[in-house]
Design a protein that fits this description.
The chain is elongated. Helix 1 (4-18) runs antiparallel to helix 2 and helix 2 (22-44) runs antiparallel to helix 3. It has a 5-stranded antiparallel β-sheet. By secondary structure, it is of the alpha+beta class. It folds into 2 domains: 4-71; 73-169. The longest helix has 39 residues, at 48-86. The chain has helices at residues 4-18, 22-44, 48-86, 165-169; strands at 93-98, 108-120, 123-135, 141-153, 156-159.
């Protein structure tokens, strides 16, 4: 095997990852891990079972790394929205925008409002409605809306709901 092929594939994968297309990134990560695993396995053994184990191990590590990065990206966005919404009174609207440090997903923006306050003894939470605002192909603005709950933890507001984040961010909230 030419030694340049893994390097070229890695550079293509990094470039593809910069586009932010998560399904392409996920499949590209799996494919690159497969190529990398095959290269490692071919140098390490002639035993097909051992080579398969190496390949699956490399793929699993690569996918776990990607999922960790996606969870951190989602947490960053959720924390930003929670901090902005935490300062709002019910009915007030604010804008939010996130620029991801690692471009594994598109930068996004939207609006957030507090629909109601949920409180009890030593517990202050807010139900929020937030949007993801995009421009459609015809350049008309388009918004998707989601409802979530945030709660105050000491001096900061934290994301408190699993749903509908599952719809918004999949299983990788």
């Amino acid at each position: 095997m030419n030694k340049r092929h893994p390097t070229v594939l890695l550079l293509i994968g990094i470039a593809a990852g910069a586009c932010g297309c998560s399904s392409f990134l996920r499949e590209g990560t799996a494919d690159l891990a497969g190529v990398g695993g095959a290269a490692i396995a071919s140098r390490a053994t002639d035993n097909a079972a051992v080579a398969t184990g190496i390949g699956l191990g490399v793929r699993s590590v690569a996918m776990a790394g990607l999922q960790y990065a996606q969870r951190k990206t989602h947490q960053e966005q959720q924390d930003l929205i929670a901090q902005i919404a935490g300062k709002l009174e019910p009915g007030a609207v604010a804008t939010w925008q996130v620029s991801h440090k690692v471009p594994i997903e598109d930068d996004e923006r939207g609006r957030v409002t507090v629909s109601r306050i949920i409180s009890g003894r030593n517990l202050i939470c807010k139900e929020i409605v937030f949007s993801i605002d995009t421009a459609a192909a015809d350049h008309k603005p388009q918004s998707d809306f989601y409802v979530a709950t945030i709660c105050r933890d000491a001096d900061r507001w934290k994301w408190a709901s699993a749903e509908p984040a599952t719809e918004r961010w999949g299983a990788l909230q």
